Amino acid sequence: MEVSNKYVVIKHHIEEAPKESDFEVKTESLNLLVDEGSDDIIVKNLYISIDPFQINRMKSFSPSQDALSSSTAIIPGKAIDGPVIGKVVASGNSKFEKGDLVLGVFTWAEYSLVKETSILRKLDSSEFPLTYHLGVLGYGGMTAYVGFFELCKPERGEKVFVSTACGNVGILVGQYAKLFGCYVVGCTGSHNKVVFLKEKLGFDDAFNYKEEKDLSSTLKRYFPEGIDIYFDNVGGKMLEAVIANMNTFGRVAICGATAEYTDLRKTGSLDLVNVIYKRITIKGFIATDFMIHHFSNFMKKTSNYLRTGELKVIEDISLGMESVPSAFVGLFNGSNVGKKIVRLVEDEE
Amino acid sequence: MEVSNKYVVIKHHIEEAPKESDFEVKTESLNLLVDEGSDDIIVKNLYISIDPFQINRMKSFSPSQDALSSSTAIIPGKAIDGPVIGKVVASGNSKFEKGDLVLGVFTWAEYSLVKETSILRKLDSSEFPLTYHLGVLGYGGMTAYVGFFELCKPERGEKVFVSTACGNVGILVGQYAKLFGCYVVGCTGSHNKVVFLKEKLGFDDAFNYKEEKDLSSTLKRYFPEGIDIYFDNVGGKMLEAVIANMNTFGRVAICGATAEYTDLRKTGSLDLVNVIYKRITIKGFIATDFMIHHFSNFMKKTSNYLRTGELKVIEDISLGMESVPSAFVGLFNGSNVGKKIVRLVEDEE
């Protein structure tokens, strides 16, 4: 049985901030039959995760390829891949059967022909919405959880600063930190988001970096007693200002550098005299390194917070394959709040 | 009994590279008698430790004061203080008696009037020369030892890069790393020092940074398989080049930033994309934080290496109070090799 299958590509490598015209939705013909006993599995995709790190795979020279063998470049004209949730429609592999809900690294397409190695796990939609497995119970949740608890090793009462605080990870770090008993200030890019962080998410305070001229003075105003922990998702000049305002034995966890992804000139400088005298630790990390030892704890703790309602889930969902380019571009111009997802079907059934 | 006591001061705050004319040797009259039962102790100083970190205390705004309450500013016209070895000549404190050899934080003077709290410990000159307690068995040795073993957590066969490799700390880090079984390359500032590192200290390789135009390409030449550990004593552009050449899970221990101490414009920028994807950890540290848990291990291991002759001690000793300014200035113009010390007496007896 042949179907028409829409998928998304980049037309060419993207070196700076992405534009919608850099992308194209193409159509191919796909056979939905698979050979019994083959490893071929066909998934009908329901939800595509839209993540800023993908921009690094879209460059002609991808800085990530050097370091991560798993992070292959995205090739212009070929379907982009990334975290996707789908439903198995045909399987030649005995471990998966028609109707299974699966999370994996699949193409940004209506249907993906995949192998078992591309599937991360089967999902169950009985307790939580499926989309949670792309956000709060997925990679972003793990990033917030291990970055905050394992890398930053917080103590109650410590002062925590979160940049890109309205992004998928920032929203969760801030909430974990509040639930743990820290003082939390977030930085974001609009007045509405500032209000949202304070009123809806319980951040102790928040500010709009676009309204601030001297970030170091701004941070001194919000942290008169200094910053103990900085969860960095933006990089650039903000890290410089944080180092100047950090307390001794301060910790910086860096999971993203959105400012630098699209403009390498935005790299900040590092004042090492402060780093030494304040004994600051700066750590870059990738949540997948922590899967084996920390995933089950993360799921247990986070699921409990979801059941009690203490952790709020913020999702920003667009509809249809045609919305993928604008959804992705929106990550870099400040238009999204929370986990960005594209929903491909009207109904999961 | 009154004696004439020479001591060294800065004439004014020093903001950039120090010059001999920034210093002055002054003379005061000092009474060598102390009251029985008082805490007053008078020490005749034998050896003054000359350390680059002191420049941070000589600035009008000392970046270290903010972070380290113990690191008070050096006041123009008042005697400078720092690590010194001396012999007690009079004591009102029953724990110390005339003739005791002591290591402490004393004035850069012929005689210092001190309290018990300024004395770190009594010394014994029977096995090792006293000067070792200012270098290989002192603060610099601890810095090399804890920085390499505790912060960098090396594994045998890892590739180690050491900047300021001919300085007090660099010489020891390189030797510890070789003895541990790592591949070690040092960077220094002259051809003679390059030869010295390779031929006398057993570094696998070394280069003169002044002869290199593009540090990142240089490092790629010396580390075709990448750098696992960087022991940073210089800061600035070198750290930038190292990050570009680092392997995944690379570690950077920063104990000094000599390039930045005297010229804040030399601050390097930090490429966070590499820091994240390579999961790099950067840690500033101060060896005194590790005294309680690591000093006895450090002394035991290092003393054994000294007994077997596996660890070479390189000292650079000047004679007399008048040589203090040039000794200090020399730390910043590349003229010293190994631990810089000023000897104040002809004979320890």
UniProtKB/TrEMBL annotation, chains A, B:
One Pfam family from the record:
ADH_zinc_N
**Which domain of life does this protein belong to?**
Eukaryota
Q: Which Gene3D superfamilies match?
A: Medium-chain alcohol dehydrogenases, catalytic domain, NAD(P)-binding Rossmann-like Domain
Query: Membrane spanning segments where?
Result: none
What keywords does the record list, in alphabetical order? Oxidoreductase
**For the Enoyl reductase (ER) domain, which residue ranges apply?**
26-342
Matches recorded under InterPro entries: ADH-like_C, ADH_N_2, ER, GroES-like_sf, MDR_fam, NAD(P)-bd_dom_sf
The name on file for this protein is: Enoyl reductase (ER) domain-containing protein
Which organism's genome codes for this protein?
A: Stylosanthes scabra
